[in-house]
């Protein structure tokens, strides 16, 4: 009987796996952190030493109050400047009080501070840069998101953090980046617990606007639980509800849309850990070619390779679970709620997982 079961499983894999690849991009077509059509030209120009397109892009987001785009673009430009910052220094020299240059400079300084063994000390030194960015445009919530990340790294107490949080939500009550920063602070790996993390995430998601990425906060809380370890056990039902909410959010966006790509990547990781293979395969189709560094850098030093390996694993699991004549499998046994999260990387060394 064991030999027969193995034969049937292998037959299912051979028959189904190639069919399950239909609609998925080839491995060499998958891109890691691909910029959108607005950011791409600014990064190309920065690579040539020209800061003007980046300045124009961020000025546009500020003038139009596109705070979500502004946050995402500022992070990507700062990430680029970590290894090539000549264009940013030229920009600062040409316009030392430009609120957009101040924003990127503050984000870059915080990221570099996080990378140092003397993190808390270095981060305290960059406080004035964040203040300058916040004063650049008092409407802008993005400097306050940076301040929230900064506060987590400097071991700020709850009272101080709540003051910063109040400033952030006063400017943009549903700003995704600020909510992610608060969620990280409340996580068990930092200054909260799994319960606090989930409670905050679920309340925020309930109050979120239709289509807002804030609805993905519970699945980020689930990801934190599944990777950070420690603390009380979270019920399987709560993890499934978080995944279901993120699936619903994902369905409101077009397939292969780069905007929700990170949320879909996080969701895929959680679905794999929950052994919801068919749902995970559906998200692969919605992700298309847009892999993101986060969350895969939390479990591997090769984020793109990890994502591609996961794609193969999902297809094999689905293929093995489907009957030879096709159709949907009856389901897989759930991961026990007592299963302890594991990760190759610690949860306390990252600041830029937005």
Automatic annotation (TrEMBL):
Q: Where is the composition biased (Basic and acidic residues)?
A: 341-354
Region Disordered, annotated ranges: 321-354
Top-rank taxon, per record: Bacteria
Give the protein's recorded name.
Answer: DUF4034 domain-containing protein
